[in-house]
Amino acid sequence: MTPSKDTVPTKILVIDDDEGHAEALADGLEMDGYACRLAHSGGEAIAAMGEESYEAVLTDLVMHDKSGLEVLKEAKQLQPEAVVLLITGHATVETAVDAMRHGAEDYLSKPVNLAELRAKLGKAVEKARLRHRNAELSAENVELRRQLDKRFGFEGILGHSPQMQRVFEILAQVAPSPATVLVLGESGTGKELVARAIHTNSPRSERNFVAVNCAALSEGLIESELFGHIKGAFTGAVTDKEGRIAYADGGTLFLDEVGDMPLVTQAKLLRVLETREVVQVGGNEPRKVDIRLVAATNRDLRTMVSEAEFREDLLFRLQVVSLDLPPLRERAGDTPLLIDHFISELAAEHGRDVTGISPEARALLVRHPWPGNVRELRNAIENMVLLARGRELVVDDVPESIKNVDAAGGASGGTYDLAGRSLAEVERALIAENLKLMEGNRQKTAQVLGMGERTLYRKIKEYGL
Q1: Are residues 79 and 113 in the same domain?
Q2: Integer angstrom CA distances of residue 391 from 394, 403, 450
């Protein structure tokens, strides 16, 4: 069984001190979609296993520094989930039995029949995956979430671009404080996620997080929602109502699209922030409140102040700390990470057996400009997961609106004149641009380009990239 074009290719460590033989094996396996790393001694192999994980290890039995059996024992310590196949030109029943006793999955003799190797390797990898899937699925999902947050994010907000790493640094600093935060960014960049992350990582996390979308409330309704009202305050006020500000007492109040708040309501909100008291509509008795305020907008509040559409004194109160969220097009290197995360999350949410995405489909998504930002990307992945006809998302699953933009060149950011250029020049430029787009991530670059990682490494060295 050969691997499908999964999001992350099956990684194989090939160990043989005969460099030509190792290269031949790796080239044959990479044609089937495996990602191979070579080691030309036992010591080099053990070091490689300490650096990254592999699903399978192919090792020669007889080498000049360490035997294949020694490598096998080390592999079982360093990477117990990896399947190990031994290859030797000195095949005996005794060695095969000894190898199997120490945990080898199978045994092949030199000269290796490539078809036999592919069959045994595919069978061994699939067997290992099935053996561990049910027992570890829940634990793996928890660990994946923890590792993603640790390496690439902050409470569910993902990104490894420099812009997002700066956002995470600010969040880590400001969340434990009582400071008011103003989150700026285009629609769909994740402003409410940021507000929730601030609340979750604050001393107020056990109390209410109350979100109010100012743009969704009419001018006549917003004050009743924020401040509450007493019975008879206006037509239809048949009972007393507690406002959102009072409900957020002790917790966090999130005012989304605060730039759409009417001026008269802005004045009343300012008073609440200054006095820490709220008065219900139609009432006289103030109520003390202790809230942490996070506001967000996609509008330019400074321009609105100059046009008398937003109160400057309120702006000063709101922007104790300002946090700018970059649009997705300015951090395109984060797109592959978000794609993988949303596939995993949405497949689980909808009970769909979708595990990956083809390099061609991934490339379409990465090149798209995403004017609706992360929200638009998530919606597109959800559409693809729901309608997918197989376990792997492919180009046919990509929404037509995205394919049409790509076909029109809307996401290319410009044109590249091919006439008069050599094939090597074009290839070098293509690799360089994709490396830049993927923030230097060679594994993702290789997937988008549709080539093996070893081939990419070789070309990077050849072109001096």
Answers
A1: yes
A2: 9, 21, 19
Q: Are strands 241-242 and 287-288 parallel, antiparallel or unpaired?
A: unpaired
pLDDT band per the 50, 70, 90 thresholds, residue 430: confident
CATH code, domain with 214: 3.40.50.300
| Last residue within a domain, chosen from 293, 308, 325 | 325
Residue 199, domain member (yes or no): yes
- Tokens standing for 301? 């509040």
Residue 353 lies in a domain: yes
| Calpha distance 40→59 (Å, rounded) | 10
The last residue of one of the domains, among 136, 157, 187, is 136
The count of domains in the chain is 3
Q: What is the pLDDT of residues 99-129, one digit of tens each?
A: 777 788 887 887 888 888 888 888 888 877 7
Task: For residue 335, give the 3-state DSSP assignment.
Answer: helix
Residue 4 located in a structural domain = no
pTM for this prediction: 0.59
18 & 130 share domain = yes
- Residue type for position 138: S
Paired with 60 in beta bridges are 87
Nearest alpha carbon to residue 385 among 346, 349, 358 = 346
Coarse DSSP helix, strand, coil percentages of the chain, rounded to the nearest 5 percent: 50, 15, 35
Alpha-carbon distances, residue 126 vs 131, 335, 390 (angstroms):
9, 29, 17
Backbone angles phi, psi at 46, to 5 degrees: -65, -40
Q: Are 293 and 253 in contact (CB under 8 A)?
A: yes
Rounded distance between C-alpha atoms, residue 334 and residue 332, angstroms:
5
Domain carrying residue 257: 176-325
Total length of the chain: 465
Burial of 183 (0-12, 13-18, 19+ CB in 10 A): buried
Same domain, yes or no: 15 and 81: yes
7 within 8 A of 365, measured Cβ to Cβ: no
